[in-house]
Amino acid sequence: PCLVEKFKVVVDGDEIARRLPDYPWIIVDLMLWDKHIPKEKDKITLQVRETYAVMRRMYYPRKFAITWINEEYKKKNKLPLEKIVSYEGTTAEFLKERGINRVVLLDPNADEALSEKDLEEKAFIIGGIVDMKGDKKGTTAKIGEVLKKEGIEVLRRKIVLRGDVIGVPDRINHITEILIRMLYGEPMERAILAVQ
Ligand code: SAM
Prior knowledge:
The protein has helices spanning 3-6, 38-58, 71-76, 91-97, 140-149, 172-183, 188-195, and strands at residues 8-11, 15-18, 25-29, 64-67, 85-86, 102-106, 112-113, 123-127, 153-158. By secondary structure, the protein is of the alpha/beta class. Helix 2 links the parallel strand 3 (25-29) and strand 4. The mean pLDDT is 92. Bound molecules: S-adenosylmethionine. S-adenosylmethionine is lined by residues 106-109, 126-127, 129-131, 136-140, 158-159, 165, 168, 170, 172, 175.
């Protein structure tokens, strides 16, 4: 069943309220924040703000977590951090606190494409990474390496359009929207075309 159906609750006969699901979590991981130049940090901040807007419009802000939050990001972000989960610890700590030991890491350099089966996992990680300087190719994998060292199983998965990552918008907010659309049952290709 699509997520919306699964979480509908009937109140007073016909009024419909939405109950917060336990899963899945959508996590933006800021572990690599310090590898970015100031302009890139501004772009990450803007894209995460747009990700919050996507979560409000399409999913649940309270199931949106930002991990590895640092002082600089806290000063810049202009987000209602109390409406999401803003987490100053590591992603591994965040997951362990919630009893989650396996995650999907969205990674354009993964070998496998995101499948329907993967959509049943409890948490999805998107790298808080932008690459204006061209020096961050393959850096999403580093997030996975750190998680693995902490004992978390990591499913690295790519989003592809007709088999290729070329043509897939790579902004953090766009990847989030594609993921949410797929969680609601939309095929990958249609979800990608909808955000382009
Ligand atoms: N330069 C980084 C790399 O090569 O790993 C990619 C950074 S991308 C701008 C920001 C984030 O969006 C990534 O960390 C990843 O989580 C997600 N992302 C972007 N394109 C993706 C794709 N085609 N498939 C899966 N995830 C993607």
